[in-house]
Design brief:
Elements lengths: L1 H28 L5 H5 L5 H22 L1
Length: 67
């Protein structure tokens, strides 16, 4: 039973190692960016601030409606 557990652990380790190697390759290919970072649209600081402001206003309106 211990041999089966050790074999499973080795398989899991090799899967994790391959996944990490693939991620490193992708980061090198994308100039240090992970694939997830490259898909997200870029927002300027002004756009982020505006979105946060609108979200805060909407939340304030919701709280006023509940009272």
């Amino acid at each position: 039973m211990a041999a089966a557990q050790q074999s499973d652990d080795q398989i899991k380790h090799s899967v994790v190692a391959r996944r990490e190697a693939r991620e490193r390759e992708l980061q090198e290919a994308w100039g240090g960016l992970g694939l997830g970072n490259s898909i997200r649209p870029h927002l300027s600081r002004l756009e982020r601030d505006k979105a946060a402001w609108l979200k805060a206003e909407e939340e304030e309106r919701r709280q006023a409606m509940e009272l």
